[in-house]
Amino acid sequence: MSNFKILLTDGLDAAGQSILRQSAEVNDQSGISADDLLKIIADYDALIVRGRTKVTAAVMDAAPRLKVIGRAGVGVDNIDLEAAKRHGVIVVNAPTSTSIAVAELTFGLLLALAREIPRADAAMKQGKWLKKELEGVELNGKTLGVIGFGRIGVEVGKRAAAFGMNVIAYDPLIPADEIKRRGADPASLQDLYAWSDFISLHMPLTVDTRDMIGRAAFAQMKEGVRIVCAARGGIIDEAALVEALNSGKVAGAALDVFSVEPPGLTEAVSHPRLIATPHIGAQTAEAQSRASEDIAHEVLSALRGEPLRWRVA
């Protein structure tokens, strides 16, 4: 065994921990506070997190031994990438591990929106029979606009096509011919807003995408559009979304992610036409096992100076 020391702060599936423990000393401090992290991080060569832990510049300032930060999942908005570059700390993630899980949840939310499944279930549990009130819409023949046509967006598009939906996509980083090759018709953002009956968001949270779906975007959308976001909180302006739901511009929305997590009982969360789930996109047994194995191998490769598959910074 090497002398590498690896700190886990948000837990890691047993499969990944087993890989790590064969080659390094591993300390599982799941749920550690930000203050306590600062006190112990100096002793570690690697840090593996999920979405809870905020890896700030202060954390890296306190970590002279730190060589690599691993994100057991896709999004790295909880890691200060600029600070990592300044300190020469490698950042890696596991971008392919959760694609199917997030795509399947997204499509489940699409179906739940179309047929008001949560409302139907809640009413039945209260002894109510709301059959006549629960007239939904079919997905067949509707247009799904996918914003962000990477791995997850493509998987959502495949499932939508199987349901007879017309899939259009916008992604500023992917050429139109590649979007078409991946199974969707390319569209400008303005056309996607205007044509889509359903919109699904699959982009990272950046300076450019924060509050991207706000009042101006809603104004360009089709009356009665339905929106799903299982990407990152902060992409949708939640106050503007509540206004759009109240006006009927948006017929329904489903969010798995929020600008503040946990959000508490906000106006958005409590809105009768919004389905809310607690950031469970990647929460399948299969996805967690894949993510743990992928990040374990990637972090060990970084520590050993070996080639990396998924270096972010």
Features:
alpha/beta; Rossmann fold; 12 strands; seven-stranded parallel β-sheet; 313 residues; single chain
Give me the CATH fold name of the largest domain.
Answer: Rossmann fold
Low-confidence stretches: none
Major sheet details: 7 strands, parallel
N-to-C span: 27 Å
Structural class: alpha/beta
Which range best describes the helical content: under 10%, 10-25%, 25-40%, 40-55%, 55-70% or over 70%? 25-40%
CATH superfamily of the largest domain: NAD(P)-binding Rossmann-like Domain
- What is the topology, as strand order, of the major beta sheet? 8-7-6-9-10-11-12
- Strand segment count: 12
Q: Any idea of the CATH class of the largest domain?
A: Alpha Beta
- Rg measurement, Å: 21 Å
Secondary structure tally, helices: 12
Number of domains: 2
What fraction of the residues are assigned to beta strands by DSSP? 15-25%
Compact summary:
This protein is α/β, with parallel strands linked by helices and 313 residues long. Helix content is 36%, strand content 16%. It contains twelve helices and twelve strands.
What do these coordinates show?
- The structure is a single chain.
- With 313 residues, the protein is α/β, with parallel strands linked by helices.
- It has 2 domains: 5-97 and 285-304, Rossmann fold; 99-276, Rossmann fold (3-Layer(aba) Sandwich).
- It has 12 helices and 12 strands.
- The chain has helices spanning 14-21, 34-40, 57-61, 81-87, 99-115, 117-125, 151-162, 176-181, 189-195, 215-220, 238-247, 285-304, and strands spanning 5-8, 25-28, 46-49, 68-71, 90-93, 143-147, 166-170, 185-186, 198-201, 225-229, 250-255, 274-276.
- The protein has a 7-stranded parallel β-sheet, with helices on both faces. The chain has a 5-stranded parallel β-sheet with strand order 2-1-3-4-5, with helices on both faces.
- Helix 1 (14-21) links the parallel strand 1 (5-8) and strand 2 (25-28).
- Helix 5 (99-115) packs across helix 7.
- The protein is globular, with a radius of gyration of 21 Å.
- The two termini are 27 Å apart.
